[in-house]
Design goal:
The chain has nine helices and six strands, in the order αααβαβααββαβαβα. The chain has helices at about 5-10, 10-15, 15-30, 45-50, 85-100, 110, 140-150, 160-165, 200-210; strands at about 35, 55-60, 115-120, 125, 155-160, 180. The strands form two sheets. The chain has a four-stranded parallel beta sheet with strand order 3-2-5-6. A two-stranded antiparallel ribbon has the order 1-4.
């Protein structure tokens, strides 16, 4: 369904009643309404970052709900799309943390290809209706994704921005992993601890310390 390795890790989840109902409901939503990301990109984050490749998890809430924005990766937008304010602030912190120039693209596919799982807790949304697919079962599914990653024997960095993401911290119990938390990069909260939190350098310091190749966060 997604990739062979993800399917093996999530095999038991696919058989649960809530997941079968979720698939049925999401298909109906896509058939009767305009939903994002495009149906073939709903699992794009996991297709680009396979189970055995995950070094870092950045957790978002749900996809962008404007036309042409969402590409199946948390915080990421398709090329040639105006960058949302939260992404602009992520790039400001990236510049202040590691010195890289502000990227010209809002697509984070380059991060995903290096092992950064850009996971939204809710994997779809109706056009112009943020959080419209909340409660359909996506959260149960993505919580299980976090649990199976927590069970891995190789260290992972979990980056949790904002209260919603931080609520998932209780799922990360394996002491080999690093959990980085701060306020959300949204303009409403970025000055409450997001700016200056240095998540990118802290991530790479941890990976290097654990003999894992660091992420090249430079998108230019």
């Amino acid at each position: 369904m997604i990739t062979k390795k993800w399917d093996q890790a999530l095999e038991s989840e696919y058989k649960k009643d809530y997941f079968l109902e979720l698939v049925k409901n999401i298909r109906r939503e896509y058939q009767t309404k305009t939903c994002f990301p495009p149906a073939d990109l709903v699992f794009e984050a996991m297709k680009l970052t396979d189970y055995d490749q995950v070094k870092v998890v950045i957790l978002g809430q749900d996809p962008y709900h404007g036309v042409g924005e969402a590409e199946g990766l948390a915080f990421s937008v398709q090329d040639n799309v105006k960058m949302p304010p939260s992404l602009v602030n992520i790039f400001k912190e990236l510049h202040n943390d590691l010195g890289y120039d502000i990227p010209k693209t809002g697509s984070l596919r380059k991060w995903a290809s290096q092992g950064v799982l850009l996971l939204n807790a809710i994997l779809s949304v109706e056009k112009d209706k943020p959080a419209s697919h909340r409660g359909l079962g996506w959260e149960l599914f993505t919580d299980q994704i976090i649990r199976v990653l927590n069970q891995k024997e190789t260290p992972i960095v979990f980056i949790l921005w904002g209260n919603y993401a931080k609520s998932k911290k209780e799922l990360i119990t394996n002491p080999i992993h690093l959990v980085l938390t701060s306020s959300h990069p949204s303009p409403f909260s970025c000055n409450n601890g997001f700016f200056g939190s240095k998540p990118f350098s802290k991530t790479n310091d941890f990976l290097i310390k654990n003999k894992i190749s660091p992420i090249n966060f430079d998108l230019n």
